[in-house]
Specification:
Number of domains: 2
CATH topology of the largest domain: Aspartate Aminotransferase, domain 2
Order of helices and strands: HHHEHEHEHEHEHEEHHHEHEHEEHEH
Structural class: alpha/beta
Shape: globular
Distance between the termini: 52 Å
Radius of gyration: 22 Å
Bound molecules: pyridoxal-5'-phosphate
CATH class of the largest domain: Alpha Beta
Strand order of the largest sheet: 1-7-6-5-4-2-3
Amino acid sequence: MADKDFPISGFSSLAIHAGHEQDPNYAHLTPIYASSTYVFDEAEQGMRRFSGEEDGFIYARWGNPNMQEAEEKIAAMEAFGISDNQRAPLKLKAILHASGMAAISTLFLSNLEKGDKVLSHFSLYGGTQEMLNRIFPSLGMQGIIEDLRDLEKAEDALKKHPEIKMIYLETPANPTIQCVDIEALARLGKQYGKIIACDNTFATPYLQQPFRWGADFVVHSTTKFLNGHGTLIGGVLIGRDIEFMKTKATKIHRMLGGNSNGFDAFLLVNGMKTLELRMERHCQNAIQVASFLESRPGVARVNYNGLPSHPDYLVAMKQMRHPGAMLSFDMKDGLQAGINVMNRLKLCTRTVSLGTCDTLLCHPASMTHYSVPREDRLRYGITDGLIRMSVGMENIQDILADLDQAIR
Ligand SMILES: Cc1ncc(COP(=O)(O)O)c(C=O)c1O
């Protein structure tokens, strides 16, 4: 275990060591704590723990050593190399959840109340979009959807809807890999006194740190690149206002019951240790896959924010270390061409989700968006022949060979 006062300077060193505490039995890794409750030496100790006077675990819905390790690691990675207003290293607080959607629910329900509105970009994860469209109205809240790449439109929306309390971004976003400028939107939002929240799932803190650009909150589906091996469902909410995170956000998280568990937190902790190495390889492969697809005659368009042809290339270059491992491409011959490519795959995997070692492809028009009316999905850039790809870490020649035979 690294000494607490060792001045760690590298991202991987931090990802490996941050959050780890010496196990009382000297186990090398934190063992999986499969216990619902934690005992008190005496009644007074219970009182001290419940009152917050003494740190310590009480009940696993509220946290356990595996979850705490994961939370501290993620908070350290999101804050890596960033200073606060006093030029001291930025401190953040993370709360681990059962899923990305649970973390997003805590974000909204701890910050918003009846009458409030959220301004968001039109390219959003489907679950978040449904939450804004279907759950918000029953709570007396509303999602306002705009193209947030256009700052004038964003400002018009802020003027028109003074009830907007939060600007919620997802960048890069599904499935066209659109990027919004976090810094520009945060600056605009702050002028109007708004909360800025960002879903950083596609990028991970290794590629992009929204707190550097002014975000107040970050959420992740840890199911994806943070775990990296497709072995769990999880999410995390991270906040800059430590007091808020320890009080309001913690209360809502505990009351909603969207807690993680020892096993998933253990898998997540060990996955995150290799984040830098994995993302380097994912990204190296992704740019080669994107350039290859761009050269194929059957492909009408490639959406990858690392290609100069992508409309948000410059924004991605500004705020991301590398453009990432997510891309999509549009088959010229439409629906059947998309289905044919999926059926011919021999190495890459046909599935939804993203961020695993293997390359994953899905065809939204016949899968995730099958039940969405065609006009609606076209509005969001989900054309009939569009295929989304999470570029894995296989050797590049094998990924390209599989794509080549599947597309031909
Ligand atoms: C960008 C993004 N945010 C949030 C979520 C929701 O995460 P989860 O499935 O872990 O609830 C997903 C899931 O795919 C996602 O892609």
